[in-house]
Here is the input.
Amino acid sequence: MKAQLILENGMRFSGTVFGAEKNIVGEVVFTTGMTGYQETLTDPSFAGQIVTMTFPLIGNYGINLEDMEAKHTNLKAFVVREKCDFPSNFRNEMNLDDFLRQQGVVGIEGIDTRALTRVIREAGTMKGVIMQGEPSDEEVNVLMNSLDNSHVIMDTTAEQVYTLNETGRPHVAFIDMGAKQGIIRDLLKRGCKITVFPANIPASVIEEANPDLVFLSNGPGDPLDAPGTVDTVKQLIGKYPICGICMGHQIIGLALGCETKKLKFGHHGGNHPVKDLTTGNVFITSQNHNYIVADLPDTVEETFINVNDGTCEGIRHKTLPIQSVQFHPEASPGPLDTGWLFDRFLKGVN
Here is the structure.
């Protein structure tokens, strides 16, 4: 079925719908990963977004249920130049079309994804709709104006408190902002007991659990939409070591008095270079965010920067055991350059 991806600047890209057949609205972003499309589809950090894959052929190794980063997809739609209908891999369980149909996610192929990416790079991230047929400008505007991503954190956080590996140590209080399962897997590999809390949990409940470490996960959207979590972290400062990844990094930054800013088109993909300011080493990292930490107070110092644009990729408090990174050391699917950071996070609390 023919459909159009229409951007809020009026540009229209024609393609063919696959997966779920419905009209949707979302924030249009692009990701530069050549592989890992299943992890992209199930990463909660993409909630509320229309995700464009810059690599032209997607779906060639199929879908398997073991590599899910969440129980279900969270993005609004998936844009590809060409989908593969006949994947070849011994782990394959279904093709991309069947998976999106099962998950209720709209796919559109036949789009010139290179041209679309150039538009987003030049104009910045913007809203978009995918609509079937030839919708009028009025129909487009009605759907476009209905977008509200302020609730995506609460849409993707844990529904209730639960614990993993009861006999493990150290005990990690894990605040789920919309977590990838890869982060939890890496903590479990290191023997941690993990108590997972929803994003809106009060500090008093975490204190009752008596953890050794407070950890904030990745998640979707704007960190300013989670003021309750920022207040929770403020109340925990000085009582526990605190670490975070991605959205968790931004929440920690706000709690320490930093500012957050929105990037023009974000960092999405598995090939982003960051520099360790302590050693001078450069690592290739997986990233997925539209916001950054900026304007650090005197009590906070940068630990990593983005080699491409100089933005902040990591911070630590100068006197308290608080540290965080913007990128994803758990990778999932890769690269694995910075997995050692989990050992640094856990150092001193075993």
Q: What stands out?
A: The mean pLDDT is 96.
